[in-house]
Design brief:
The structure is a homodimer of 363-residue chains. The first copy, chain A, is α/β, with parallel strands linked by helices and 363 residues long. The first copy, chain A, folds into two domains: 123 residues, Aspartate Aminotransferase, domain 1 (Alpha-Beta Complex), CATH 3.90.1150; 215 residues, 3-Layer(aba) Sandwich (Aspartate Aminotransferase, domain 2). Helix content of chain A is 40%, strand content 16%. Chain A contains 13 helices and 13 strands. In chain A, β5, α7 and β6 form a beta-alpha-beta unit. Chains A, B: Pfam families: Aminotran_1_2.
Amino acid sequence: MRLSDFKVEQWMNDYENDAIYNMTDTCVKSLTLQELLDLEDFDFSNLILDYGQITGDVELKKEILSLYASGTIDNITTAQGCLQANELVMNTLLEKGDEVICVVPGYQQFVDIPKSIGCKVRLIELDEYDWQVGVKKFREMLNTSIKMIILNNPSNPTGTEYSNGFLNELIEVCKPYGTYILCDEVYRGLNQEVSISDIYENGISTSSLSKVFSLAGLRLGWIKANEDVIHQINVRRDYSMISTGPLVDKLGWIALKHKDELILRAKNIISTNKNIVREWLKENPRFECVLPSGGTVCFLKYGFDLKSETFAKLLLAEKGVFFVPGSCFDKKYYFRLGLAQDSKLFKAGLNELSNFVDEHLIS
Amino acid sequence: MRLSDFKVEQWMNDYENDAIYNMTDTCVKSLTLQELLDLEDFDFSNLILDYGQITGDVELKKEILSLYASGTIDNITTAQGCLQANELVMNTLLEKGDEVICVVPGYQQFVDIPKSIGCKVRLIELDEYDWQVGVKKFREMLNTSIKMIILNNPSNPTGTEYSNGFLNELIEVCKPYGTYILCDEVYRGLNQEVSISDIYENGISTSSLSKVFSLAGLRLGWIKANEDVIHQINVRRDYSMISTGPLVDKLGWIALKHKDELILRAKNIISTNKNIVREWLKENPRFECVLPSGGTVCFLKYGFDLKSETFAKLLLAEKGVFFVPGSCFDKKYYFRLGLAQDSKLFKAGLNELSNFVDEHLIS
């Protein structure tokens, strides 16, 4: 069960605290507790801090369900963040000898947890031109040994959004084999993206309050899937977490009751920041970027030969500008650019990046 | 990775909500949020709900450290409950082919997680007379293949407290092999029990706020171990949880800053309930029980031939008295009796148990 360093998380753990301009965070600018409590008049004083409802507060699960087009609350169980939701799905459904398909560049958890279980992981590369991929590559790889395809929609770090056409075509390919499609949809919500759990019986959606809802500090995630899968996960869950607890469940219920306000806030921040990037790219021809339709991140490409780790470390030390280097996703010439931070700091950080380039590189 | 039903947790999930008298809960009567907040004047309003400090708030870790006799905060990392702490330790240190020793009757997680990893699990039975065991049985079993011994001190469901003499002798046996001793110490704190992490380099202590601190709803646990083990666990942790979040960390810090008050409250409840049991046993000779020195639970034995599941279901349906049956721990003739509930309800529940026996069994 030994796992290697989770490169992007380790990088964040090691360097994030030194940042003046965090240009790489995937979470929309976090709310304070007071901002959350101000959304709803609710009396917490008599809340009993026992385990609460084991698979999640019923009122919370109703609000989670409202994010989807189908199902009942029996299609939902809660977890501590989307990360644990993903781990629970993989630990429950995958066994040694199974094969899975992952897409790269992507999130390391999807590759390394299956490997730690003893699965064979087959990789499909996104097209660097637009960070998309055709179903053809999946069709060629699919056979009865493939237990699960793992996607991230929209994705970290590329911002890829899989179209409805792509997903429907992929489902048709998977159906004869009953292949699970696990779709980490933690960046979903800004662009009316379809959920895999609404269009495919063996589609499993995971998400949380951390990214577009600006509440990573609650550590509240969930899984939506067919009832058989949810039952199996609930059995596994008793060995890992018991419950998410009544306090977090109630705070999560408030957040999702006011999802429209939170989503609007996130959209405004990201839209402003996207415009800042567009303008900045015009002035900085050494950089290019596929600006995504949804999600909170993209992959900023640079046109010179500094290794991404060296570049990121120098930039942080000298200007306080913090990026996760492409090397954390096994890609050269890239930084992960988060679009969800405070817009003033975001603009200032990009300017400092320009200054750094002017000062150190031959034009 | 398929795991069977976690019997005791499933039983609680299925039946607990129907109880009038919950006689089997392992947590000391839970605090309300207001009772917790009343302990300390702290302004939460500006708390930012981001991931917070990844391996746990430094002030929280200092308070956790105060529960132990040795170490620094670098010997500590946090988890979401003691259950996840245990899972992280086992998932990090155990690999397919390793052997572990577990003690029965005990907590199913310790047996089934290692099995799911592909470990061979060797069982040692506690002596039913006093729920103790000699080191001899471990010495006979120990060899280079045994990677870890897993104990629960004090234990669920038997209330076993391992003496300092036993632990020191066991450590001497383990040292030549470098065998890890994972000790789930979630019931520690009521009786000045020694921590394995204070007396053995390869001793790993796990605990949480759920049991003696009456705050299961915070889902806050931790691990104390040598720095190398903590480093390895922190690497694994990035795939499972990221952090416990700043809100829970601050609330946990308040609880532990006032640990003496919370422990005193727990001791008073349990001491009252133990006296109630002692009196009740005198009047009910069909029952017997080894009353434990620490912890919150014991194993109540009954002297008639009803299967424990049948007995528990009938008792719940007819009297609203809820027990976890011994069958959940693979033992006949037993109920798990929790000593930590509201004393009035506790006494009334035992009286209802007497009434049930009077009404249904031939004297």
